[in-house]
Design goal:
268 residues, alpha+beta, 5-stranded mixed sheet, two-stranded antiparallel sheet, 9 strands
Length: 268
């Protein structure tokens, strides 16, 4: 009787990554295929920062139009392969002539629409959202595995402040078992629900979700006995905009800590 050798952890992770790449390439191919017939769809005009932009009404959302026009808009929860959630409220823009702010990722474009993407009202709202996200976020950027490659870190440089108004203690959340190859640091979570939507929509795994309300909300399993086990741990960790999900080999004693210790020793 010939025994088949067990599949290694590395091959499982590589296979999951290949499946994820095939899904992304298939979706992008479908977008190209649908775009071939875009010239036959009715076109209209809208205005972005008082500049006319050609759109296809009801076929794309406002954030897609802004990215197509190379207008940088901060975002955390939006991703092209996932459904629209609108959790982070960072992609808000202002309707010209009013004080109304709309979420661009969840707003379909309409003919004659006119928006402002970088007004004082928009900047104040984005700065307030970043301040709320950083209330319970740990100040461990120097030792975080996602440092220098973190969306929250980049957005905080533009919309954050060096004088926080929150003086209370930060909330700590107990980590849960996610996967043998993953390490979860829930204190860094900003509740973008990218991991939840990916597991629900692409792997049909509904064990992970958002529980609690308001300041007590967190990403966790609905029952303590449930475990999230998936072969798609690599794409899930890549979708996370902060350092909440990391592969198991990325431990606290990472290269950043070693570099800081070496620099401290050299300065003595």
């Amino acid at each position: 009787m010939i025994r088949r050798p067990p599949r290694s952890t590395l091959s499982s992770s590589s296979a999951a990554s290949d499946v994820y790449k095939r899904q992304v390439s298939t979706q992008s191919t479908g977008q190209v295929a649908s775009g071939q017939y875009a010239e036959h769809k009715p076109r209209a005009m809208m205005f972005v920062n008082k500049r006319p932009v050609e759109i296809i009404p009801q076929e794309e959302n406002l954030l897609e139009v802004l990215e197509r026009e190379n207008i940088r808009v901060p975002k955390f929860c939006y991703h092209p392969i996932l459904s629209v959630a609108g959790n982070c409220r960072m992609c808000i823009v202002q309707v010209e002539g009013t004080q109304n702010l709309i979420v661009s990722c969840a707003t379909a474009v309409l003919p004659g629409m006119s928006i402002i993407t970088d007004s004082r009202l928009v900047r104040d709202a984005r700065e307030g959202n970043v301040e709320l996200m950083l209330i319970n976020h740990p100040n461990d950027c120097p030792i975080c595995e996602q440092a220098t490659n973190c969306d929250l870190q980049n957005v905080s440089m533009n919309y954050g402040t060096d004088i926080p108004r929150y003086k209370e203690d930060k909330r700590a959340v107990q980590d849960f078992y996610f996967d043998p190859q993953m390490r979860v640091v829930l204190n860094r979570c900003i509740h973008c629900t990218r991991c939840v939507r990916f597991l629900n929509e692409h792997t049909q795994d509904f064990n992970l979700g958002m529980i609690g309300r308001g300041g007590l909300s967190e990403i966790s399993t609905f029952i303590d006995e449930l475990e999230v086990r998936t072969d798609y741990n690599t794409p899930v960790s890549q979708l996370c905009p902060v350092g909440r999900l990391d592969l198991s080999e990325a431990d606290e004693n990472n290269a950043i800590v070693a570099e800081l210790e070496a620099a401290a020793a050299a300065s003595m």
